[in-house]
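User: We ran a pulldown and think these components assemble together. Before we commit to crystallization trials, I'd like a predicted model of the whole complex to look at. Sequences follow.
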Amino acid sequence: MASAVHHVDTPPRPKPEDLLLDIRNLKIEARVYPPGETPRDVTIVDGVSLTLARGKVLGLIGESGAGKSTIGLSAMAYGRGGVRITGGEVILNGRDILKTGKDGVRKLRGAEVCYVAQSAAAAFNPAHRLMDQVVEAAILHGSATRAEAEQRAKHLFRKLSLPNPDTIGDRYPHQVSGGQLQRVMTAMALCSEPDLIVFDEPTTALDVTTQIDVLAAIKDAIRDTGVAALYITHDLAVVAQVSDEIMVLRHGKLVEWGGTRQIIKEPRQEYTNALVSVHHIEHEEHAPTANPILSARNITAAYGGGPIKVLKNVSVDIFPGQTLAVVGESGSGKSTLARAITGLLPPEQGSITFAGRTLSNALKDRSRDDLRELQMIYQMADVAMNPRQTVGTIIGRPLEFYFGIKGRERDQRVAELLDKIEMGKGFVDRYPAELSGGQKQRVCIARALAAKPKLIICDEVTSALDPLVAHGILELLLGLQKDENVAYLFITHDLATVKSIADSIAVMYRGEVVRYGPKSRVLTPPFDAYTDLLLSSVPEMEIGWLEKAIKGRRMESAGN
Amino acid sequence: MLKRIPVSSLIGLIFTALFLIVAVFAPFLAPYGNGQIVGGVWEPMSAQYWLGTDNLGRDLLSRMIYGARITIFISVAATALSFTMGSVLGFAAAVIGGWFETLMSRLVDLLMAIPTLIFGLVILSVLPTTIPVLIMVMGILDSTRVYRLSRAVAADINVMDFVEAAKLRGEGTGWIIFREILPNALSPLVSELGLRFIYAVLFLSALSFLGLGVQPPDADWGGMVKENKEGIVFGIPAALIPAAAIAALAISVNLVADWILNRTSSLKGGRG
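Assistant: Here's a predicted model for the assembly, 832 residues in total across the polymer chains.
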């Protein structure tokens, strides 16, 4: 599909008087230092060209490593972490900003082009008040006096529907929520009235329920101020809501570029089609059986014996060979439920029955069989594996530890397990650092399977992965469930994932289960207010979804 | 594989190896006996006495060679003791936590509150100054630093998901300390090892210089500086030679430690 000479249809060039940004044949390289080898240059962005008209929004989308952030930052003549722009032109407002030198770039950044980062919490200085940081660029560039800039900032706070717009600027970054901070950052970018804003995954780190508010705020602000934007994300459904055009990138090369409607409705490239059609796994729901494999009754738990109960009277059942999905936003207690079940956080009240016997609350009192039959897979596969152990050791250890299998038989079993996770025995000697994100998660799955468990707790196992890779992991998990008859407790905030794999669902909100039952019943109206909010907040790949969703909401999200 | 070693590490390796060979094969290499008086006091360098003679007329080269043996043996033994004790206790404190950690940490604070040299002097003036006692005192005093470092490093690793996964699997404290934490704590510990070895050399030299270290007629390099220090006034370099040897050992061992650090911090098993 993507060959060196392949031709990509591009949308018509904007009229010269409308043209704001014109990137021509951009080439970006970085020097990598593999240990023990001579340093070499790798090409991160290879000959990408784009144009952006005033007041328009172009979405840059692709998986990690596609070069989208790097291209976005090149619009500010910036290369992050030793990345060098080695070829091409970036023409902004009629001049090539790569040739303006240090002073020219300094005048440009924060005045003509502004940047909104993914993690607002890391981008704000915790020692200064929000207002000081929001108006700083405008004052520095002399485009406004302090009073004017603050006036403008308050106006922007109101436009971005932040609470208490007149006084929120007096707070420090830690005194507002994550979703609010992201909007303050958008206000900061808009405050110096730039021509272009680069949004770098501005909603990726937020809960779905918060994301929708921030998205709507950003969209309104772009429309009202007439600023142009590069919107970088890996989520097509999100970008479909805000952008006029979408550019699909892969491995630093352009795959497809077109109007938003064309890209999501009639993708012309195979890769775009794969991105658009992700998340369609058919999964037949199983009915609950008579005897649950795990039954948690009235679990109440708190950290450090404190007065704040993170879990309140939670009861759920998991049936053999089935999947219970636990959904909710961050802070709802989903991961704490997993910790309570595994014994890492002994519950204060309540009991857990597993495979017909009552589990001791504390981890150290549990028998080896209890530990073996209840395995866990983590969100961040790279920290869930000891970086100093090979794949063979990682997968082989449960075999040795639980079954006493050693030597050649162990190697044999490790090879079988590697086959099961579709990787093959060539990986036995690899270290985790030599695996891709998806492969790491597969190895973690194999490690859990090696113990022949009856239940695996999956804590956000696909959240850190690119959509296509995550899709592969979900299919693998479902296939293994069929073969091994293992049950899953699947913790996630992603409702699309839930729809594709769950048999029953528990919706959690602030430590309580607010809705619980078989998937078909939980996802059938009438909904309670929170489930409704959660369901309606999941972005759909449909133009105009955002406005419809905002209008239809019955309840404000907790992050607002 | 030798090609990939940087020049500085190569120099460090060669010198360290040289010192070690000299230390191990001292009796075969030294032209004269350790305490043997062979000539006049402070004779200059000559074909017969390559480095001249010392304050009692003993061959300085032979004294240096035997001195290398004593200095390196005591320092290696003390460093080994301090590392074994410090790191095992430090890891255990981080993994076990609770009262064990509090007790150990306060005990270490107590030891560290007293300046090492003064503490060493007090103990050694009470106990008989034999080599095992010297090693014990140096090792225990130095292990406080190693304990602090290992506890801090292990506390960081102990909260990682892979350690939690091992705990969920039901692994014992031994496996968690030696198989999960130790390999990941090696890099900072190895770089510390070079440094602590040198501190041991310097500490021993200081003790000997003050007369509480190795006792005559044996002498380590620090003791030899002391024996010959009066000669400096008369322009005789006999005291500077052991001092220079201490410096050369310090630098070459650290060059090697740096190289090992670079190799072990690679997460691909050092194979690139």
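Residues 294-524 of chain A form a domain with the Rossmann fold fold (CATH 3.40.50.300). That may be worth checking against your pulldown data before setting up trials.

User: Thanks, that helps.
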